[in-house]
Amino acid sequence: MDTSSPAALVNAQILNMFVGRRVRTVVQVQRNEGGFLVGQSTDGHQLTIKSSVDVPVSHFMEVYGIAENSQTIRAEVCTDFGPDFGEILCAYGVCLCPFYHSTVN
Amino acid sequence: MYGGGGHYDGGGGGGGTTNANSLFGGGGFMPSQSTAVPESSGGGFSKGRNAQTLLPLTVKQIMDAAQASDDKSNFAINDVEVSTVRLVGRMLCKIERVTDVSFTLDDGTGKIDVNRWENESSDSKEMADVKRVTDFNDITHHFLHCIHVHLELTRSKAPMNASTSTPGNVNQVRLPNNQATTFSASGNTAGNDISSLVMSAFHDPAVINLEHGITVEYVIDRLKLPEQEVREVIKGHVEVGNIYNTIDDLHYKSALNG
User: Fold this and answer.
1) Cα distance between residue B215 and residue B230, in whole Å
2) Which domain holds residue A77?
3) Within 10 A of B128 (CB to CB), how many other CB atoms are there?
4) B213: Cα separation from own chain's centroid
């Protein structure tokens, strides 16, 4: 049993509280700058994800990793959540945007 | 080493994780309020059909409950006996054998060993069903479901508490705090809440690793609570050993992370 390194679910605003620690978040990929991805956080800020994983632009991506600073996460695991993550929530009239993303394309 | 390929899996019985429509339909996953109320006032948790309830849980909830219980094969969360649970997380270190499949499930709140076909290990969970997550909204849904069920079960305790606390405190929000059991209760509901809030301020991820801890003023400012009461609560925590002075008389730190 290991609860020693839980990954805190963060957005950009509270990322700086977890610098140096393991975090988990979802971003919408905006661009790939070779070796790192720039994505929009759930609260609308830009986060840099150090990762070699190639996730298509506009896809939502979950990131497990270490917060290097208040804008950068060194990814350990990236999961492509696809281009329409979160849409079903709005389809059901439930606004959960503060939990995961600010806009649905 | 992520031997399992990092796939998301939902474990548990009876719940279809691939059909979001069925999940949103309500289903039968919410334990009814009656199951949460102990059948007798003598303590313990109710048995019977509760054991068949499928509870959406996080790994941390299971770990906390398992550590609090002496009986490793039988424990309760929010006074509901836990039998079949539903977890959603990443599958790690999957090992397939002829007789069993074992892996570690990491849902972000912790990791837990999962076995199928064997339940000999007291700290492992016997897996009833496992499905790969194909709709990633199910992950969001699972954790919201966990929050919802947890709130339902903790709220349903309020009428039960009415007999033991003053009526004015019944509607007071009782923050679930796992540390609440680690320090002595004052016998006063409101006192316990301030006590829990103060401890939660010390356990905030932003401060728990600060070498010098935090000051009383920080706690007062953070919680926006009356200074005198916060000072008394902190003094009480120091006396029972939950928090301690660090570099001087002004800085305190929780003993939790020693």
Assistant:
1) 11
2) 8-100
3) 16
4) 25
CATH 3.40.50.720 fits B8-155, yes or no: no
Whether the complex's predicted ipTM is more than 0.90 is answered with no
Helix B189-202 to helix B227-240 angle (10° resolution) is 80
Is the Cβ of A96 closer than 8 Å to some Cβ of chain B?
yes
Chains A–B, number of C-beta pairs less than 8 Å apart? 57
Q: Is residue A105 part of a domain?
A: no
Q: B166-254 has which CATH code?
A: 1.10.10.10
Alpha helices in B6-164 (DSSP H): 20-24, 33-36, 59-68, 137-155, 158-161
> Which chain A residue is nearest to residue B66, measuring alpha carbons?
A1
Could you tell me the residue ranges of all domains in chain B?
Answer: 8-155, 166-254
Mean pLDDT in each 10-residue stretch from start to end of chain B (258 residues)? 48 40 41 42 44 80 76 72 84 84 87 74 58 87 90 70 42 41 39 78 77 86 84 88 86 77
